[in-house]
Amino acid sequence: MRGTTRDEAKADGIAAAGLDAAVADPDRVGTVLDEIADVTLVFWLMGSAEGVEEDVAALHGPRLERLMEEIVDTPVRGVVYEAAGTVPRDLLKRGEEIVRAAGERWRIPVAVVDSDPGDGGAWLDAMTGAADRLIGTGRLV
């Protein structure tokens, strides 16, 4: 499994958790795409993204749209979108719509998880359940 961060200083923490650490910036989708050559599932865990309001909105809008467009030509076999967290609900709803539309348009298996990331156990169960469904049965909407 690979975990990404835009902050190189945090890569050691990802590696310490047992993941392959990569530095990629979701504001520059190309850097994310560079890291998915051998990835089966992409988890867009931006439900509690922080930063400038316009930048956070872009993560659930144009950046996500671009990622979904580009995934078609990769080995990725599914996308899990985090639709809960501290980001305003209207942005999460927009992201959910983008992911579902891409799933329909390009037949990309997708799952939308709206489990509260503040409830670690339930959130983890929901995320792993989504992964199991995507790799086990294919397309979810």
The percent of residues in helical segments reads 40-55%
Structural class: alpha/beta
Give the strand tally. 5
Number of separate domains: 2
The overall average pLDDT, rounded, is 92
Brief overview, please?
This protein is 45% helix and 15% strand.
Structure commentary:
The model has no long low-confidence stretch (mean pLDDT 92). The protein has helices at 11-16, 29-33, 53-59, 62-71, 89-106, 120-137, and strands spanning 2-5, 20-23, 41-44, 78-82, 110-113. The chain has a 3-stranded parallel beta sheet, sandwiched between helices. Strands 1-2 form a two-stranded parallel ribbon. Helix 4 runs parallel beside helix 5 (89-106). Helix 5 links the parallel strand 4 and strand 5. It folds into 2 domains: 1-28, no CATH class; 36-137. With 141 residues, the chain is α/β, with parallel strands linked by helices. The protein starts with a strand and ends with a helix.
Which properties best describe this structure?
single chain; 141 residues; alpha/beta; three-stranded parallel beta sheet; two-stranded parallel sheet; 5 strands; globular
Topology summary:
Layout: E1 2-5, H1 11-16, E2 20-23, H2 29-33, E3 41-44, H3 53-59, H4 62-71, E4 78-82, H5 89-106, E5 110-113, H6 120-137
Parallel strand pairs: 1-2, 3-4, 4-5
Helix pairs in contact: 4-5
